[in-house]
């Protein structure tokens, strides 16, 4: 009876949508990290993040050590590495979890820019009205943080052979 119920549940539309969503969350995060990481090697992206980096207490030191382009490239390498690690989930869930934990840290730093960068809130309106850039640009990182948290938890569960999994990723 219990086996039959499990088979019915795994055939349900809800289960299929949940698994499809899990794939989109994980590999959407991977694609975003690879894509945005690759863009860090362009001049326009390096210059685009300069105002965010220079105003943050966590990253303002960087331009004393690196040029604008070289620091952006370093960030790009980190983002690409994290994306690759997260993608290893099917065969190396512990590595995937490490990539997700790194992404959590990265997105927390990025979200802190909302508190330190001038112009985040729409002039004349203030909070809770984000400006198009950098406010709305940073807002997406809240969802990316959630994806990284979920992928970290799911990969850690997958790495533990004693854990019962409810989704296939």
Please give a structural write-up.
73% of the residues lie in helices and 0% in strands. With 169 residues, the chain is mainly alpha-helical. It has one domain. Helix 6 runs antiparallel to helix 7. The protein is globular.
Structure summary:
73% of the residues lie in helices and 0% in strands. It has eight helices and no strands.
Count of helical segments? 8
Major sheet characteristics: none
Q: Total number of β-strand segments? A: 0
Query: Percentage of helical residues?
Result: over 70%
How would you describe this structure in keywords?
169 residues; mainly alpha; 8 helices; 73% helix; 0% strand; globular
List the helices and strands and how they pair.
Layout: H1 2-10, H2 13-39, H3 43-48, H4 50-54, H5 62-65, H6 68-87, H7 93-116, H8 132-159
Helix pairs in contact: 2-6, 6-7, 7-8
